[in-house]
Structure formats: C-alpha cells, structure tokens
Design brief:
- Strands 1-2 form a two-stranded antiparallel sheet.
- It has about 260 residues and is mainly α.
- A hairpin with a 2-residue loop joins strand 1 and strand 2.
- It is built from 10 helices and 2 strands, in the order H-H-H-H-E-E-H-H-H-H-H-H.
- The relative contact order is 0.22.
- The chain has one domain.
- The longest helix is centred in the N-terminal third of the chain and has 25 residues.
- InterPro entries: TM_pro_TauE-like, TSUP/Inactive_protease-like.
- It comes from Spirosoma endophyticum.
- Belongs to the 4-toluene sulfonate uptake permease (TSUP) (TC 2.A.102) family.
- Keywords: Cell membrane, Membrane, Transmembrane, Transmembrane helix.
Length: about 260
C-alpha cells in the first residue's frame, strides 16, 4: 500500500470525525478523497460517498435516537419525498446524463467534469454557510406550527442534490428544519443526521443495480469512518461547535477552490 493510499484511509477517520463533531459535512470530503487520492471515476466516487456517509451517519443517528433528540414526525414528512427524489435521480437521472454534457466546436464539457463543477459550487455554498455560522432562530414556523408542505417540497430538492453529487446536504437540511419545522438547532442537527443516513442509503440502492462495486475497498474505508464518528461524538463535549464549523468551512473553501483550478488547468 502506497503512502498516498495510507493518507486516503487516514482521511476516512477525518470524515467520521467531522460528522460526529458537526452533525454533517462528511460528504463534502468523501468525493474529493475518492477522486484525487484514490483516482476513482467521478460517478463511482459519488456512489461510494453515499454508502460511506450513509453508514457513518446511521451510527450517529442511532446515538441521537437513543437520547431522544430526533423528531420522527418531521423526519417522515421531510424524508419521504426526499427518498423518492434520491432514488429516481440515482436510478435514472445520473445514468441518463449525456457524455459530454455540452459541446460547442472545440469546447467539450464531459459528464464527470460537469458533476465535479456542480459539487465544487455546492461546497462553496456550504463553506459560506459554515464560515458565517448562520443559525436562524425562527422563521415560518416560529408560531409553533410546522409547514409540512414546504418541508416536503424542500425534501424533494435536497433529494435531487444528494442523488446528483453524492452529498448528504446537511448544511441545507438543518436551516430548513429550524425555519419550517420550528425545531431548536440541536434537535434540527440530530434529525438531519437521520435524514442524511437514510437519504444516502436510498441513493446507494439506486446505484447498485447498474454499478460494480469494490467491496474490499469500500468496507474498510467505511469502518474507519465509523471509528472516526465515535471519536467525534466524544470530542463534541469539549469543542465549541461554532468555532469548529468556521474552521471546517475555510478548509472546505480551500478544497473547492483546488478542485475548480485543477479541472480548469
């Protein structure tokens, strides 16, 4: 095993560590790790990301459920349309995307590059949210009445995002649960982890019917990520979440900038 591969497997622990500390954000790291360290093709990298993030988040969500931090009613309303959107996008949309996506004379935009650009843009949006540490205190549901219709529509949109780029979308889900379901921020984070877990697994199920997977690679990587989440949940007792998210946000911004520059040059 090369030094680069050892570094890649060590990064798996960091993925779980981030999810355990911040309640999300691991998927922002998995796709770049798979592409740039292990040289896995882009679409397959998003498939692997769904499995790793789904498995790791599931472990975290079990801890939150046992501590009664998860709102199961809100989870069902948000997650059901999201599950449908994730599955359909992985099963039909991503395989149906043309390759190249766009071509005009000498300019060609391959499918893999288009997905990477989209992923990098999502990373920048996520980084901005984490650096600003926005925490909405109230919104449409400030009167205590969740807007279930809006939650369901947002679930469809997040599912499409998860299915397309293999990201859990926690940075989008948490504000929606605060604004439209009226959940306190801690409860929104816990509920988001469960939604991310099931979303990711549903998207993965949409892939396994037409994708050959290297289980000898993905299972050890996932195991290290799960080990990382236990470390993260322990360290979360001592680390200020806002400071952590801001630092991680700057790191994500640097990685996204690197991805864009590498693909352009």
């Amino acid at each position: 095993m090369s030094a680069q591969e050892l570094f890649g497997y060590a990064s798996a622990i960091v993925v779980g560590l981030v999810i355990g500390l911040a309640g999300g954000g691991g998927s922002i790291l998995t796709v770049p790790i798979f592409i740039y360290i292990f040289h896995i093709p882009t679409v397959l990298a998003t498939t692997y990301s769904l499995f790793v993030v789904g498995s790791t988040s599931l472990v975290g969500s079990i801890n939150h459920i046992l501590r009664k931090r998860v709102d199961l009613t809100v989870t069902a309303v948000f997650a059901l349309p999201s599950f449908i959107s994730v599955y359909l996008s992985r099963r039909f949309l991503v395989p149906a995307l043309p390759d190249p996506i766009f071509q005009f004379e000498q300019f060609v935009l391959p499918k893999s590059n288009a997905i990477l650009y989209f992923f990098a843009i999502v990373m920048i949006i996520a980084a901005r949210a984490m650096i600003r540490s926005d925490r909405p205190e109230e919104g449409e549901a400030s009167d205590g009445r969740p807007r279930y219709g809006s939650l369901a529509l947002d679930g469809l949109a997040v599912g499409l995002l998860t299915g397309t780029i293999g990201a859990g979308g926690g940075f989008l889900i948490v504000p929606m649960l605060v604004l439209m379901a009226g959940l306190p921020i801690q409860r929104a984070v816990a509920t988001s982890v469960l939604i991310i877990a099931v979303n990711s697994f549903v998207g993965f199920l949409g892939d396994i019917q037409h994708t050959d997977l290297n289980w000898n690679f993905i299972l050890p990587f996932t195991g290290l990520s799960i080990a990382g989440i236990f470390i993260g949940m322990y360290l979360a007792r001592f680390v200020a979440p806002d400071r952590l998210k801001k630092g991680f946000g700057w790191f994500v911004l640097v990685v996204a900038s690197y991805m864009i520059l590498r693909e352009l040059l």
